[in-house]
Amino acid sequence: MKQYLVCLWLLFLTSQAFTQSTLNRDNQKPLKIDDQVPEILLTLLQDGKTSAVPLSSFRGKLVIIDFWTSYCPICLRSFDHMEELQATFKDSIVILTANIFESQEKIGLRMQLPRLKDIRLSLLPEIINTEDLAILFPHLSVPYHVWIDQKGFVKLLGSGNNTHVQKIDDFLSGKPITFIPGELNACAYDTKTTLFINIDGKNGGKDAYYSHFTTFQRKYGMGLGSVIDYRDSASQTIRSSFINMELITLLQHCLKGQSDPIWGKILISPSPLRALEGFTLQVKDSLPYTALCLSGKRFITDDDIAASEYCYEQVAPLSMSDSLRLSYMFNDLRKEIRERFDAEVTMQTINLPAYSIIRKSPLKLPRSPLAARRSIKKTENKGTNQFINQSLQTAIVTSMGYFFKQLNQYVVDLTGYTYDIDIELPIEKNIKSIEDVRHALSPYDMDVQWTTVKVRSIVIKDRH
Predict the structure, then answer these.
(1) How wide is the angle at C-alpha 182 spanned by C-alphas 181 and 186, nearest 5°?
(2) Cβ partners under 8 Å of residue 176, min gap 6
(3) Structural domains in the chain?
(4) What gap in Å lies between CA 44 and CA 96, rounded to an integer?
């Protein structure tokens, strides 16, 4: 019996020798495109069960590793998409998930938070021994995807937007693919040289002062390395180089002095796309201006991002005023939009229906004492939250945010409170009607009214 047990133990050790990681963690460098992945032993968790699987056991299939964290809403929302891809391509691919930033215990605790109670984790196999992966595939942002081909070579390192049906289908068919690299894999933009030289190595700016507009540059990744107001005393110029940014972001920059302050007073928005506030898009196709228009409708691919982002560079005299430089930039963008998309950009005043939080009299709440410690204290027996040294916006959103979101309307703070105050409001579950809101605000001489707020908006409209 002892001999039998010894033989089993030796057999186990022998099997482990063939399947354990061959990674030398002290000397291993991060992998690049076309590097072969060394043998590593993966501990996979699925359906509450764990199994040890060598990475090489997936040879012959495209392996996609989906790196995520529980702090990333996009990651959590994309699990359904990844599961659909696995079901679509069946045995041709293997999709694994991995989280190098959080332990399984921390993930479990975080997923118990009330705001995540309706979110489920992926049904795909989860790699729970991530030490080797963190060395081989370091990254700063998520979702981050790694593709390993049928022979064990790295073929993609980058944004989760790269992983979609068309690209997987092209790859499995042997077609060449393009992708948006991750921040650690992207080509570093040389901030000391112009966009012309960075793109093609040539100095396309023959004049001392110029502006240049071009399409998305994949090698720089997603909006990394931009330079704003770079002053060169030798040439007496000031340069701004915007790298891979959406048109709405470029327009926001050059019109920032004209932005209506009302947009900054919005507490609750009916749209999850807060980045689009301040814009009115009256166009047949919104994609050339922002990929956010696709949010909630379908998965946003790397091709969508490439279609909505651009590079813009302006070199102007150092003596030129900021306002004049921004006006030139706005005119450049208007010209590009007119010529490329046959649309016009204007600033217009629009009517915004909204619930407005107002003061009923000129009297103001006292400013919270500077020495007061910022805190939110829940009083269980009263069913309220005491907001100490907090902004009114924080108090309203915390106490009444869930109720207002169900109304699917704008909520605007018109009280004029720009400083921190002390206020006690009902906890979220005790606000069930507009009357509840009014009753809660009344002791502080405030009210809520249904109004139409006039606000300046950037309007983009098709010409025909």
Answers:
(1) 60
(2) 170
(3) 2-172 (3.40.30.10), 195-261+301-341 (no CATH), 351-458 (no CATH)
(4) 9
425 neighbors 400 (Cβ within 8 angstroms): yes
Distance CA 286, CA 388 (A): 43
Provide the token pair at 348. Answer: 């217009």
- Tell me how far apart the alpha carbons of residues 125 and 53 are, in angstroms, rounded to a whole number: 11
Q: In 10 A of CB 93, how many CB atoms?
A: 20
CA distance linking residue 1 with residue 11, whole number of Å: 15
Helices (DSSP H) in 317-382: which residue ranges? Answer: 322-341
CA dihedral 367, 418, 420, 453 (to 10 degrees): 110
Q: Which amino acid makes up residue 267?
A: L
pTM of the model: 0.78
Q: Would you give per-residue pLDDT tens digits along the chain (464 residues)?
A: 434 433 433 333 333 434 456 688 888 999 999 999 999 999 999 999 999 999 999 999 999 999 999 999 999 999 999 999 999 999 999 999 999 999 999 999 888 877 787 788 999 999 999 999 999 999 999 999 999 999 999 999 999 999 999 999 999 999 999 999 988 877 777 777 777 665 555 554 456 888 999 999 998 888 667 899 999 999 899 999 999 999 999 999 998 777 788 888 998 887 656 667 788 889 999 999 999 888 878 899 999 999 999 999 999 999 999 999 999 999 999 999 999 999 999 999 989 899 999 999 988 888 888 767 889 988 878 899 999 999 999 999 999 998 998 898 999 999 999 999 999 999 988 999 999 999 999 999 999 999 999 998 899 999 98
Distance CA 296, CA 242 (A): 27
